[in-house]
């Protein structure tokens, strides 16, 4: 799948400046020798390449791709040419599929003015999107069931997209298939699986809903039965107490008998005599308090509410949902109250269930509910097992299906970049291709045409172009990480020197200068070695974690960073930031100094950073000189490289030389330095303030001591070698003169050259008009 999509990334048209770029997760390609290669720069980064970009690059490098030399390989981008493909419609699918597996060409969009919805194969792309949606649904169901996808068996060639796969897409349409090669039908299992799973999910949801209602009804019957039994027990205890009190002769018989009869009469009247009604249901426990308050206020105290929490007995699969519910029963009298109570229950989303009035009916209903719950549990378990079996069977082929659908989708997306000839019988495509791979591309097209059964051969030929060519750097698993770092900051123009080989050393080293620690370096080295030794197993594991992929793809970068960190850790004499008696490097005794610790260490690190930074800048300027020389651009050499190098040398390289000289000649001992008497460390020159005084051309005395041998006040600010004042004034003047040369000379010369070209064009047009009018007359 990854290797397929390289061919599907389109180049940008110089007319519209539009670009169609494949997703970043699908841009890995496979070279013909099995290693991974980068796509051309504009495609790999999704960078817009417009008409203005082409014009600016043409002015900067006024040459076509034919004038570029043969110096190629690691140091510069490979030679790329523009080629034209002439394909028959019957063989186009197979050719694009084979080129995608090859992964060394980049298609250009020949229909920049046509919207995406008006292209030839937009219906096929939509059908692929529909298939992809169904696959995502299957994958989501598998994830919910905890089912892992099976890995692709065999080699990548076993899962190549063949022309017959396009038949499956025609199931959606009534038009006859354009290709007649039989192959795996993808649509039929998709539709069957989706329909079966959706029906299974609907049945499962219905069963769960019925199961939940039965569980609620079971709890209602249990709680209401307990409530009525409790009321009967209280009435029985009351009657028993009345009978026991009436047997005592000491009590006044008349008064006691009348009170007892009234009490008994008020409690023994049945529900039928008073015509009391009740409703029972289940409500969320968090809503119970508000429900009770509203019920009391609306019914004005004429309703009696009893509640009980639901105790989970493990029979409910949704026990977490039922655990926060409570059973309630409301006694009331009258039709009006019943209507109000039901509306209140609906507003609080309470579930009302029918509850019989007699104990015998409640017991019979409880037995019936228990039987139905048991049957539902069996049916629900069988439904879930069937769904699990279906998903397990689908998981064996889902990854292969997804691979094929994505490949087919991007193949049709690439075919939308093609144009038809005037007869509408031939597809025309333009591709960027490395010149070294042209023969391989021709062989691939020939093989794909033969496999598709087309009698007309596919034609590939180079075409001349003045367009700016895309940058293509061939990489392997070691250099890819460093190349990605370079591309993150900017992609070299076609034919320019590739900085990636140089940062393979400079980037880990500069990181180690900042990070230097033996202990941490060993940890980084160990992690990188683990990734390298287990890279085959980790690649086949298809771990989609973004953080893991970041570290795994940069394993060789981390390896060198760890090795250099160990090296600089010896220099810094640090192991997990702990110092010890040192064999080499910085003496840790400086950490005990109260006043000089930061002064010494910060000064050393700052000066070292300046040296390394200026050295890297100088090296970059030198590389730019070789670029200008390679492109035969004398204008850039004279008015860009030379002024930049002079400016850098007069200010910053001069500062670096001062740092090195100060380290060598100035110490804490008194002596003589460059003919001046040096009293000691207190008079060591201050380079920072000296640089400021140099740029301000501030005059100051020379030497460190006066004529009588005493140290001069602020002697560290004085000139410290003969002729320093004159030299610094010359350097500042040269640096200042370089600034307008860098900023204005090259644009002025380019403007004048352009003006001459425009004037010559107008002159030639005027001459043509004069000659035309002369001959007409």
- Assign the structural class, choosing from mainly alpha, mainly beta, alpha/beta, alpha+beta, or little secondary structure: alpha+beta
Question: How big is the Rg?
Answer: 44 Å
Query: Would you identify the CATH architecture of the domain at 4-120 and 416-473?
Result: 2-Layer Sandwich
CATH C-level label of the domain at 4-120 and 416-473: Alpha Beta
CATH topology of the domain at 4-120 and 416-473: Alpha-Beta Plaits
* Helix fraction bin: 55-70%
> Which ranges are low-confidence, i.e. pLDDT below 50, for 5 or more consecutive residues?
1-71, 166-184, 251-273
**Number of contiguous helices:** 22
Gross morphology? extended
Query: Mind describing the biggest β-sheet?
Result: 6 strands, mixed
Mean pLDDT: 78
- CATH superfamily membership of the domain at 4-120 and 416-473, which one? ACT domain
Fraction of residues in β-strands: 5-15%
Report the end-to-end length measured between terminal Cα atoms. 70 Å
The counted number of beta strands is 14
InterPro entries: V-ATPase_116kDa_su, V-type_ATPase_116kDa_su_euka
Family: Belongs to the V-ATPase 116 kDa subunit family.
Keywords: Coiled coil, Hydrogen ion transport, Ion transport, Membrane, Transmembrane, Transmembrane helix, Transport
Transmembrane segments: 509-533, 554-572, 608-626, 646-666, 730-749
